[in-house]
Design goal:
The complex is a heterodimer of chains A (558) and B (110). Chain A is of the alpha/beta class. In chain A, 37% of the residues lie in helices and 16% in strands. A five-stranded mixed beta sheet of chain B has the order 1-2-3-4-5. Classes of the chains: A alpha/beta (558), B alpha/beta (110).
Chain lengths: 558, 110
């Protein structure tokens, strides 16, 4: 970040930048345009550092990931018209997946909003469905109020996107206002003693309680509280993809798998049989209750920092509302030591053995192209817990979410609400900025890779150090396997091949290829020690991908 | 499963042969808990002739390690190889425990 400027703002744009400085923003992911060039002119002198991007959607992905990893909403800045509409996928991903960001979009002068003119758009109308807060600024002096509320809304649970529309004349116009300081949202309140006692009594009398951790369980304080609880009162544990890494190795006895798309995992059987499911920070968008809870007889205790959405298939018996960690700690105070160990019943062991067996068989795969399970085995053995792995959507995401064991929260990251293709490379860039000096790996299929591969230029220019792995099979495989399941054939899912090594080199990045299982560890070791972005092409054996959705009902596909 | 124990100064040397699964592991548990209740705190467990380990075996080793940690004792594993070594890698146990090539090298660490 450049030096903070506290002198009186010369126009709306400078006041806006001062407000962003006040919120602690370090980076702006932006694409320039005439409607917002006043802001760029200010950023040339002071304010957050501009990361120039190659597409607005990717700028939003980067902002969201910086927001999640730093705790301060990330900021993206785009021009009017298509600049704004190109943001919509990025903002819906942020809002549905829980990534905090504030997006700034230009608009035509206020006096031209009523006519059909160049790049004129009802920005707020476009953005309202995909954000938590969308406001157009009509008076430059209201910039500080709008900015501070946009930031607060973004980080109020559930996390998501805010959008501010900026008419060009507001940015160039004179202002008198001064920035408003950062106001952290107040706490979410404390527990209800009665509700906690009821929940504890329900768990104490349960035969098979199961903890089901969702996205907000990956908040650091919640992860710690859950670990304390399960150390003291072991219970079987499953998690959604975005809660990967909540359990450490030391709680192996509790772990029964990552659950999500396609209800066919060993852990799903456990969830089905549980007489009490304790959801912790779970968002139904992560795993549709219709899929895992329809026809289930057990009760649900919902622990979260915001109200759950009630639907036909999600009706918790008890809600512990407020700070999640506080509620967990208080719950632990009311639990009684058990005479039995709910983690050692035969079903839990069956589930754990099934997971071990799948991974053991996967490790033995020795053919070329490389089998996903062999690759995951080698990768897991190579990298430490402190490496951040960001993963794109597609079949790769199902393989990784189910079988790549993560032992620290927010070290294995997915888009699990909108399941947006193309997030991985932009997220890798953002992670190198939010976690400077740390190792970063991003992964995508060859379908997802070209959704955002243009940002490789951004990565080279910004000298980002990360390794991006591309599993290449020449198809939109996750769609293909579902078509085959539904129709017995596939259509419109095969595409051409490209030379990813040459592609990487044409950007000034390093391109490497892994052809055989024996190459995985040496090539990845080399890649992780290179400077600048590295693209690794990995022809992949997707011949067993049908197993990913085996025994799945038609309605659970995506 | 076959379990043999002997004492090397203050260390209990435990040798496990065969399979550690949900049927056989309770015997290992019982042996270890008996020894711990008699005041033993330092264990070297030789898994060199263990052919198979299931989640039941893993959770038993983990539970005993936790119990010993509470008593300021410790468990060292030796001779983990073959399929058992694979399961240790896959389950994260290789990173959790100090694993030695042989009983002798484990004893030196004690």
């Amino acid at each position: 970040m450049n030096a903070k400027n506290t002198s009186k703002a010369r126009n709306g744009a400078e006041l806006l930048v001062q407000c962003l400085e006040e919120q602690g923003v370090q980076y702006i992911f932006g694409i320039p345009g005439a409607k917002v060039d006043t802001i760029f002119d200010v950023l040339a002198d002071h304010g957050p550092r501009l990361i120039l991007c190659r597409h607005e959607q990717n700028a939003a992905f980067m902002a969201g990931m910086v927001g999640l990893l730093t705790g301060t909403p990330g900021v993206c800045l785009v021009t009017s018209g298509p600049g704004v509409t190109n943001l919509t996928t990025g903002l819906s991903t942020a809002t549905y997946d829980g990534y905090p960001l504030v997006a700034l979009g230009g608009n035509v002068r206020r006096g031209m909003r009523h006519i059909k003119t160049h790049q004129c758009l009802d920005n707020v109308g476009v953005m309202q469905p995909v954000t938590k807060y969308a406001v157009e600024i009509y008076d430059g002096n209201s910039i500080p109020e709008v900015v501070v509320n946009a930031f607060r809304q973004s980080i109020m649970p559930p996390l998501g996107a805010s959008f501010i529309s900026l008419p060009q004349d507001v940015l160039v116009g004179a202002v008198d206002a001064t920035p408003i300081k950062f106001f952290p949202p107040g706490g979410r309140g404390t527990f209800s003693v009665d509700a906690v006692k009821k929940a504890a009594a329900m768990i104490n009398s349960a035969k098979m309680p199961v903890v089901f951790a969702g996205i907000s369980a990956s908040r650091p304080e919640v992860t710690q509280a859950l670990r304390r609880l399960l150390n003291e009162y072991p219970m079987p544990f499953v998690n959604t993809y975005q809660a990967s890494g909540v359990l450490p190795r030391e709680l192996f006895n509790c772990y029964a798998g990552s659950l999500g798309i396609f209800q066919n995992q060993p852990g799903d059987r456990l969830l089905k049989r549980a007489d009490v499911v304790i959801t912790v920070g779970f968002d139904p968008v992560e795993y549709d209750p219709e899929t895992w809870n329809k026809g289930r007889e057990g009760k649900i205790i919902n622990i979260d920092n915001h109200m759950p959405v009630i639907d036909k298939y999600y009706q918790p018996e008890i809600e512990l509302a407020g700070e999640i960690a506080t509620n967990i700690d208080e719950l632990a105070r009311h639990l009684r030591p058990r005479t039995d160990d709910p983690t050692s019943n035969s079903l839990v062991m069956e589930v754990q053995d099934a997971l071990l067996e799948a991974k053991t068989q996967g490790a033995k795969q020795s053919g070329s192209p490389i089998h996903p399970m062999r690759f995951i085995y080698e990768l897991r053995n190579l990298i430490g817990d402190d490496v951040t792995v960001v993963c794109d959507v597609g079949s790769i995401y199902v393989w990784m979410a189910r079988y790549f064991a993560s032992y620290e929260p927010r070290r294995l990251l997915f888009s699990n609400g909108q399941q947006t293709l193309g997030v991985a490379l932009p997220w890798a860039i953002a992670t190198t900025l939010a976690r400077p000096g740390e190792k970063v790996i991003s992964m995508s299929g060859d379908g997802g890779f070209l959704f955002s591969a243009m940002e490789l230029e951004t990565a080279v220019r910004e000298k980002c150090n990360f390794v991006h792995l591309v599993w290449r099979d020449g198809s939109y495989d996750m769609v293909k396997i579902q078509q085959q399941l539904k129709y017995g054939r596939s259509f419109g899912v095969e595409f051409g091949s490209l030379d990813l090594v040459k592609f990487a080199e044409s950007f000034g990045a390093t391109g490497l290829r892994i052809n055989r299982p024996g190459d995985i560890t040496p090539v990845l070791s080399r890649a992780l020690n290179l400077t600048g972005p590295v693209i690794v092409d990995i022809p992949i054996d997707y011949s067993s991908n049908q197993s990913l959705c085996a025994a799945v009902h038609e309605h659970v596909g995506h | 499963m076959e379990i043999q124990t002997r004492k090397e100064k203050a260390t209990v040397m435990v040798s496990v042969k065969g399979r550690m699964d949900s049927v056989t592991t309770p015997e290992f548990d019982k042996n270890m808990i008996d020894l711990i209740s008699k005041g033993e705190k330092i264990f070297v467990v030789n898994l060199g002739e263990l052919l198979y380990i299931s989640s039941a075996g893993l959770r038993s080793i983990l539970a005993i390690a936790k119990k010993l940690k509470e008593k300021e004792g410790k468990i060292l594993l030796a001779g983990v190889r073959g399929p058992v070594e694979e399961v240790f890698k896959i389950s994260g146990f290789s990173s959790m425990f100090k694993i030695f090539d042989s009983e002798e090298s484990a004893l030196r660490e004690v």
